[in-house]
Amino acid sequence: MKKILLSLFLSILFVPKIMAQADTTAAYYEKIDQSLKYETGKITLSEGEGILNVPKGFKFLNGEQTQHVVGDLWGNPKDESILGALVPDGKGVTHSNSWMFVISYQGDGFVKDDDANDIDYDDLLKTMQEDTKTTSEERKKAGFEEVQIVGWASKPYYDTNLKVLHWAKELKFGQNPSNTLNYDLRVLGRKGMYNISAVANMSELAEVKASIPGILKSVEFNDGHKYLDFDADTDTVAAWTIGGLVAGKVLAKVGFFAILAKFGKVIVVGLIAAFAGLKKFLFGKKDQVMTKPKEEEELVEETASTEE
Fold it and tell me: How far is CA 232 from its chain centroid?
């Protein structure tokens, strides 16, 4: 009889509370989206002597805001090299189907493209999968989920005219049931390159690929800094070529980006809080308070004031 009453009590308590929490969570994240300041048109990039022509169907989010989204909201390692991001029109950064192109610059020299047509990318993939095991261990030590490369989502391709290399990996983070898509582009210049990485779920692969033609031409170096302006007598040549860029060994600091479940984390906190309240009601014991990120604490406070 006690079990039946408890089950009935749980159904009455949990369902409305979870629904209220979910509604409040959605409203909270909507406020985050609305607080972001986007730009369009021609953007002067703060590093690399280049400009970004925001392509049709996208809006630009500056470096500071993008670092907050990728690190604080999406749960990735912080990366201060991020210069900004291209976010699809009609999408926010907190929606379940959010994705964007993250932009950074690496000024380590002129990348020779002599080997572009000589690489066996299937063999390279196997090497990358082995190397990622080491990267994954380092991530775990730093408190992040382990990661593995499932395979190519799109095989590497080098555009000899635009001097742009692009490819896509399918990644798996921890026990996350949804795999992550990292679609990478490298825009080569005289003294370095722009890294443009699409961070999305695999379900967005077709949408991301459809946007690639516009993205390929969105970033360009200023005159005097283009790939064809290279001066062998004065300029530094990078220690790697096209194959090295795809393998990613020299880009270890960039790491792997993941999109985490944006609503799940806070809803789980709500479930735990609801169960803690039920436990206290049934057994009269005081539970320890969970430590939460500042944003989640504010959300819980908002929820409490709303319920009152």
Answer: 36
- Same structural domain, 271 and 142: no
**Does 177 share its domain with 292?**
no
Question: Does residue 267 lie in a domain region?
Answer: yes
pTM: 0.71
**Helices 264-283 & 2-35 angle (0-180, nearest 10):** 150
Residues of the domain holding 219: 45-251
Give the distance, in angstroms, between the CA of residue 66 and the centroid of all CA atoms in the same chain. 10
Could you read off the pLDDT of 246-298 as tens digits, one per residue? 887 533 433 455 544 333 333 333 333 333 333 333 333 333 333 333 444 44
Unique residue bearing structure tokens 């090295």 = 244
User: Are 107 and 67 found together in one domain?
Assistant: yes
DSSP label at residue 249: G
Residue 160 φ/ψ, nearest 5 degrees: -70, -25
